[in-house]
Amino acid sequence: MEASSTLTTVFLPIALAIVMFGLGLHLTVADFTRVAKVPKAALLALGTQILVLPAVCLGLVLAFELDPVLAVGMMLLAASPGGTTANIFSHLAGGDVALNITLTAINSVLAVVTLPVVVNLSIAGFLDADTAIGLQPAKMLQVFAIVLVPVAIGMVVRRRWPEFAERMTRPVKIASVVVLAAVIVGAMVAERENLLDYLRSVGLVSLLLVVCSLGLGYAVPRLARVEPRQAIASSFEVGIHNSTLAITIALSPALLDNATMAVPAAVYGVVMFIPAAIVAYWVGGRRRAAVSRT
Q: Which percentage of the chain shows pLDDT scores above 70?
């Protein structure tokens, strides 16, 4: 079933622009260059996000024998960069939020290339179809526009009018939450006839993807002896994806134009809060206890 034209052509681009603009309001050029100060932590987190996570998602998709269209939607979600919500959970858990901001910034840039690659391979493998979002130059440019242009505008606003950017942070954050909820509801409504079947199909897979992502995001850096605060930041950056971006790409008439592919991201946008909150509470409690003992 194709998504409604009003949702996909009017509301979705505005919704994503608000979310990405809000991300830009938090970024400076220094956020991109900070990786030089913590190259090990940053490279391990980015490697886990870009290389390991799609492989884990593929394993889950195959193990649960998902419908091919839903399988592509899951892979699209896994390939999406971290979302701004990761910064909030990282802060609650005592993580290195500066590293989160850096990873979000770099991953959003890299996603312009990595996301089309993962999705194209998934479409070829699961659907054996010609529908693709890149690396066709025109569609690549559209992904670039919806991911980076609002971020760049937000960064310019922060640089030229820092006080205004600070005042706008809370309203934009609230707007981001509202539009994310609206987009999720819109995607669900578009597929309401099949909603229960989709929830049964991808609910557990989405939950397992969150748990695996959070675990790998923490374990990989710690095994490489990265300090705990940076490992916490990595955990939430790898574990919490920009589901709004995934939904937008799935529903956009110029890209995938498939409401079913948006379902995994919509379901994920709901279920990810439970394990993320549990991990933030548990890790934050352990860190506070450790600090009180010193």
A: 76
Q: What is the mean pLDDT of residues 209-238?
A: 91
pLDDT at 125 over 70: yes
- Sequence-distant (6+) residues with CB within 8 A of 116 are 132, 133, 134, 135, 139, 140, 143
Buried b (16+ CB within 10 A) or exposed e, 29-42: eebeebbeebeebb
Q: What is the pLDDT of residue 159?
A: 84
Q: Secondary structure of 5-56 in the HEC alphabet?
A: HHHHHHHHHHHHHHHHHHHHCCCCHHHHHHHHCCHHHHHHHHHHHHHHHHHH
Q: Is 109 exposed, middle or buried (0-12, 13-18, 19+ CB in 10 A)?
A: middle
- pLDDT 10s digits, 53-102: 999 999 999 999 898 999 999 999 999 887 777 877 887 788 887 788 78
Q: 82 - beta bridge partners?
A: 241
pLDDT of 3: 45
What pLDDT shows up at residue 62?
A: 94
The total of other beta-carbon atoms located within 10 Å of residue 159's CB is 12
This model's pTM is above 0.90: no
Q: 30 to each of 144, 168, 182, how far by Cα in Å?
A: 21, 21, 33
**DSSP secondary structure code for residue 89 in this structure:** H
CA distance 114 to 35: 19
What does the alpha-carbon distance between residue 247 and residue 229 come to, in Å, rounded to a whole number? 31
Q: What is the DSSP string of 234-248?
A: HHHHHHSB-HHHHHH
* Distance from C-alpha of 205 to C-alpha of 225, rounded to nearest angstrom: 30
Under a CB-based contact definition with an 8 Å cutoff, are residues 106 and 267 in contact? no
Which element (helix H / strand E) includes 273?
A: helix 273-293
Phi and psi torsions of 139, nearest 5°: -70, -35
